[in-house]
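Milestone 3.1: sequence recovery, worked example.
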Protein backbone atom coordinates (compact mmCIF):
# COMPACT_ATOMS: atom_id res chain seq x y z
CA UNK A 1 0.00 0.00 0.00
CA UNK A 2 2.81 2.47 0.67
CA UNK A 3 4.38 4.27 -2.24
CA UNK A 4 7.88 2.92 -2.93
CA UNK A 5 9.22 6.40 -3.52
CA UNK A 6 8.20 7.46 0.01
CA UNK A 7 6.52 10.53 -1.44
CA UNK A 8 2.96 11.18 -0.34
CA UNK A 9 0.46 9.96 -2.92
CA UNK A 10 -1.88 12.39 -4.60
CA UNK A 11 -5.51 11.92 -3.64
CA UNK A 12 -6.45 10.63 -7.10
CA UNK A 13 -3.54 8.17 -7.08
CA UNK A 14 -4.59 6.92 -3.63
CA UNK A 15 -8.19 6.52 -4.83
CA UNK A 16 -7.00 4.55 -7.88
CA UNK A 17 -4.82 2.34 -5.69
CA UNK A 18 -7.71 1.64 -3.32
CA UNK A 19 -9.96 0.77 -6.29
CA UNK A 20 -7.28 -1.53 -7.71
CA UNK A 21 -6.74 -3.33 -4.41
CA UNK A 22 -10.46 -3.78 -3.76
CA UNK A 23 -10.96 -5.07 -7.32
CA UNK A 24 -7.96 -7.40 -6.96
CA UNK A 25 -9.34 -8.87 -3.72
CA UNK A 26 -12.68 -9.55 -5.40
CA UNK A 27 -11.04 -11.00 -8.51
CA UNK A 28 -8.75 -13.31 -6.52
CA UNK A 29 -11.73 -14.51 -4.46
CA UNK A 30 -13.87 -15.02 -7.55
CA UNK A 31 -11.33 -16.32 -10.08
CA UNK A 32 -8.43 -17.55 -7.98
CA UNK A 33 -5.13 -17.84 -9.81
CA UNK A 34 -6.98 -17.31 -13.11
CA UNK A 35 -7.66 -13.66 -12.20
CA UNK A 36 -6.12 -11.48 -14.88
CA UNK A 37 -4.51 -8.11 -14.32
CA UNK A 38 -6.41 -6.74 -17.32
CA UNK A 39 -9.75 -7.72 -15.74
CA UNK A 40 -8.68 -6.31 -12.36
CA UNK A 41 -7.87 -2.96 -13.99
CA UNK A 42 -11.20 -3.01 -15.84
CA UNK A 43 -13.11 -3.88 -12.64
CA UNK A 44 -11.36 -1.00 -10.87
CA UNK A 45 -12.31 1.40 -13.65
CA UNK A 46 -8.72 2.25 -14.53
CA UNK A 47 -6.47 1.49 -17.45
CA UNK A 48 -4.00 -1.38 -17.42
CA UNK A 49 -1.16 1.16 -17.58
CA UNK A 50 -2.35 2.58 -14.23
CA UNK A 51 -2.20 -0.90 -12.70
CA UNK A 52 1.29 -1.59 -14.07
CA UNK A 53 2.55 1.85 -13.05
CA UNK A 54 1.54 1.15 -9.47
CA UNK A 55 2.14 -2.63 -9.40
CA UNK A 56 4.72 -3.60 -12.04
CA UNK A 57 4.46 -7.32 -11.16
CA UNK A 58 1.68 -9.69 -10.16
CA UNK A 59 3.66 -10.44 -6.97
CA UNK A 60 3.61 -6.77 -5.97
CA UNK A 61 -0.14 -6.63 -6.54
CA UNK A 62 -0.71 -9.79 -4.48
CA UNK A 63 1.48 -8.44 -1.66
CA UNK A 64 -0.33 -5.09 -1.62
CA UNK A 65 -3.76 -6.75 -1.85
CA UNK A 66 -2.96 -9.06 1.05
CA UNK A 67 -1.76 -6.15 3.22
CA UNK A 68 -4.73 -4.01 2.20
CA UNK A 69 -7.30 -6.70 2.97
CA UNK A 70 -5.66 -7.56 6.30
CA UNK A 71 -5.67 -3.91 7.38
CA UNK A 72 -9.25 -3.45 6.16
CA UNK A 73 -10.42 -6.50 8.09
CA UNK A 74 -8.57 -5.50 11.26
CA UNK A 75 -10.02 -2.00 10.97
CA UNK A 76 -13.63 -3.22 10.91
CA UNK A 77 -13.83 -3.50 14.71
CA UNK A 78 -14.87 0.10 15.32
CA UNK A 79 -17.70 0.01 12.79
CA UNK A 80 -19.05 -3.35 13.92
CA UNK A 81 -18.83 -2.48 17.62
CA UNK A 82 -20.66 0.76 16.86
CA UNK A 83 -23.50 -1.14 15.21
CA UNK A 84 -23.87 -4.33 17.27
CA UNK A 85 -23.34 -5.77 20.75
CA UNK A 86 -19.81 -7.15 21.05
CA UNK A 87 -20.72 -10.83 20.70
CA UNK A 88 -22.74 -10.22 17.55
CA UNK A 89 -20.07 -7.86 16.22
CA UNK A 90 -17.40 -10.53 16.71
CA UNK A 91 -19.58 -13.12 14.98
CA UNK A 92 -20.21 -10.78 12.02
CA UNK A 93 -16.47 -10.13 11.82
CA UNK A 94 -15.79 -13.86 11.75
CA UNK A 95 -18.00 -14.14 8.65
CA UNK A 96 -15.95 -11.37 7.08
CA UNK A 97 -12.84 -13.43 7.85
CA UNK A 98 -14.31 -16.18 5.65
CA UNK A 99 -14.62 -13.68 2.78
CA UNK A 100 -11.06 -12.46 3.42
CA UNK A 101 -9.78 -16.02 3.24
CA UNK A 102 -11.55 -16.60 -0.06
CA UNK A 103 -9.45 -13.77 -1.55
CA UNK A 104 -6.35 -15.10 0.18
CA UNK A 105 -7.02 -18.57 -1.26
CA UNK A 106 -7.09 -17.08 -4.74
CA UNK A 107 -3.63 -15.66 -4.17
CA UNK A 108 -2.31 -18.81 -2.46
CA UNK A 109 0.64 -19.74 -4.67
CA UNK A 110 2.09 -16.25 -4.92
CA UNK A 111 1.23 -15.48 -1.32
CA UNK A 112 3.05 -18.55 0.00
CA UNK A 113 6.20 -17.39 -1.77
CA UNK A 114 5.80 -13.88 -0.34
CA UNK A 115 5.22 -15.17 3.19
CA UNK A 116 8.31 -17.39 2.99
CA UNK A 117 10.46 -14.51 1.77
CA UNK A 118 9.07 -11.94 4.24
CA UNK A 119 8.93 -13.45 7.73
CA UNK A 120 7.59 -10.22 9.18
CA UNK A 121 4.50 -10.25 6.97
CA UNK A 122 3.02 -13.33 8.64
CA UNK A 123 3.66 -12.04 12.16
CA UNK A 124 2.32 -8.60 11.23
CA UNK A 125 -0.89 -10.21 9.95
CA UNK A 126 -1.26 -12.27 13.12
CA UNK A 127 -0.70 -9.17 15.29
CA UNK A 128 -3.29 -7.11 13.40
CA UNK A 129 -5.93 -9.82 13.56
CA UNK A 130 -5.20 -10.69 17.20
CA UNK A 131 -5.54 -6.99 18.03
CA UNK A 132 -8.94 -6.90 16.35
CA UNK A 133 -10.12 -9.98 18.25
CA UNK A 134 -8.87 -8.42 21.48
CA UNK A 135 -10.99 -5.31 20.86
CA UNK A 136 -14.10 -7.46 20.42
CA UNK A 137 -13.16 -9.57 23.44
CA UNK A 138 -12.64 -6.60 25.77
CA UNK A 139 -15.87 -4.96 24.63
CA UNK A 140 -17.69 -8.26 25.14
CA UNK A 141 -16.27 -8.69 28.63
CA UNK A 142 -17.32 -5.14 29.51
CA UNK A 143 -20.82 -5.87 28.20
CA UNK A 144 -20.96 -9.22 29.98
CA UNK A 145 -21.48 -11.17 26.74
CA UNK A 146 -18.07 -12.79 26.19
CA UNK A 147 -16.15 -14.98 28.63
CA UNK A 148 -13.09 -13.47 30.32
CA UNK A 149 -11.06 -16.68 30.44
CA UNK A 150 -10.40 -17.11 26.70
CA UNK A 151 -7.49 -15.00 25.42
CA UNK A 152 -7.60 -13.37 21.98
CA UNK A 153 -4.84 -15.57 20.49
CA UNK A 154 -6.89 -18.68 21.39
CA UNK A 155 -9.97 -17.22 19.72
CA UNK A 156 -7.96 -16.45 16.60
CA UNK A 157 -6.47 -19.96 16.55
CA UNK A 158 -9.95 -21.52 16.88
CA UNK A 159 -11.14 -19.33 14.03
CA UNK A 160 -8.13 -20.41 11.97
CA UNK A 161 -9.02 -24.03 12.67
CA UNK A 162 -12.54 -23.51 11.38
CA UNK A 163 -11.24 -21.87 8.23
CA UNK A 164 -8.64 -24.58 7.71
CA UNK A 165 -11.17 -27.43 7.63
CA UNK A 166 -13.92 -25.54 5.77
CA UNK A 167 -11.94 -23.40 3.34
CA UNK A 168 -13.68 -24.38 0.12
CA UNK A 169 -16.51 -22.20 -1.17
CA UNK A 170 -19.01 -25.07 -1.09
CA UNK A 171 -18.25 -25.53 2.63
CA UNK A 172 -19.41 -22.03 3.57
CA UNK A 173 -22.65 -23.22 5.28
CA UNK A 174 -20.65 -25.63 7.43
CA UNK A 175 -18.11 -22.90 8.23
CA UNK A 176 -20.93 -20.61 9.40
CA UNK A 177 -22.32 -23.38 11.64
CA UNK A 178 -18.87 -23.97 13.13
CA UNK A 179 -18.50 -20.24 13.78
CA UNK A 180 -21.84 -20.34 15.62
CA UNK A 181 -20.48 -23.21 17.70
CA UNK A 182 -17.31 -21.26 18.45
CA UNK A 183 -19.35 -18.25 19.51
CA UNK A 184 -21.53 -20.44 21.70
CA UNK A 185 -18.38 -21.49 23.55
CA UNK A 186 -17.20 -17.88 23.88
CA UNK A 187 -20.49 -16.61 25.26
CA UNK A 188 -21.36 -19.32 27.76
CA UNK A 189 -20.30 -19.04 31.37
CA UNK A 190 -17.69 -21.50 32.58
CA UNK A 191 -19.16 -24.57 34.23
Amino acid sequence: MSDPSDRPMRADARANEDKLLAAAALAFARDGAAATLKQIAKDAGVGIATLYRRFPTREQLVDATYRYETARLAGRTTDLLGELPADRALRAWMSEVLDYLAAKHGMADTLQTLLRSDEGLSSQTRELLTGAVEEFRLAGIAQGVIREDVPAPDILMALAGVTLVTGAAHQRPQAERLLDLLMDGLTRARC
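The chain has one domain: 11-187. The CA atoms of residues 86 and 139 lie 6 Å apart.
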